[in-house]
């Protein structure tokens, strides 16, 4: 019996339909739903100390918790004064809503997200900033061998200032300041490019 072209097409379509139908739903979802797969650490004080090897951090100024994946191995302790996370090698979401001080010490640090009304102090060999947005008074201090990436400072209504201090042997950092807010921003460090946006 000879198989026709239409039968081949119909077979391929049927196979494709069944394949998609039987796939796990999380495989097909482009935006992963992390509910139930992240561990939550409530932030009950104003200071956070983080240490590890390779750390990827997303700051969230609207959250008051720390989130990390179930596959991450983290040592955690907390008292009335500070929260300490150590031996980290992986990704974190850090809610800074109630935090005033965040100290990070690691070999490689990747930072992104949103900062508002917080002091972040980073000591690392390599630091990469990817679209980090500062939308309120903040101080960012970085001591590193190399830093690269970009940082955006948008308009904010309070009377505070944004201070960026970088001590680095190799700097490839661009700071974009919202036009009209240049007098509210202080940038210290060699080879930092400051532009308007």
Helix fraction, binned, reads: 10-25%
Number of strands: 11
Would you tell me the overall average pLDDT? 84
Q: Separation of termini?
A: 69 Å
The radius of gyration computed from the alpha-carbon positions, rounded to a whole number of angstroms, is 22 Å
Give helix and strand order, one letter per element, not per position. HHEEEEEEEEEEE
Low-confidence stretches: 16-35
Which structural class is indicated by helix and strand composition?
Answer: mainly beta
Strand content: over 45%
* Number of helical elements: 2
Q: Which word captures the global form?
A: globular
- Major sheet, described briefly? 11 strands, mixed
Labels describing this entry:
mainly beta; 11-stranded mixed β-sheet; 57% strand; globular; 197 residues
Describe this structure in words.
With 197 residues, this protein is mostly beta strands. 11% of the residues lie in helices and 57% in strands. The protein is built from 2 helices and 11 strands; from the N terminus they run ααβββββββββββ. Strands 1, 2, 3, 4, 5, 6, 7, 8, 9, 10 and 11 form an 11-stranded mixed sheet that branches. It is globular, with a radius of gyration of 22 Å. The chain starts with a helix and ends with a strand. About 10% of the residues have low confidence.
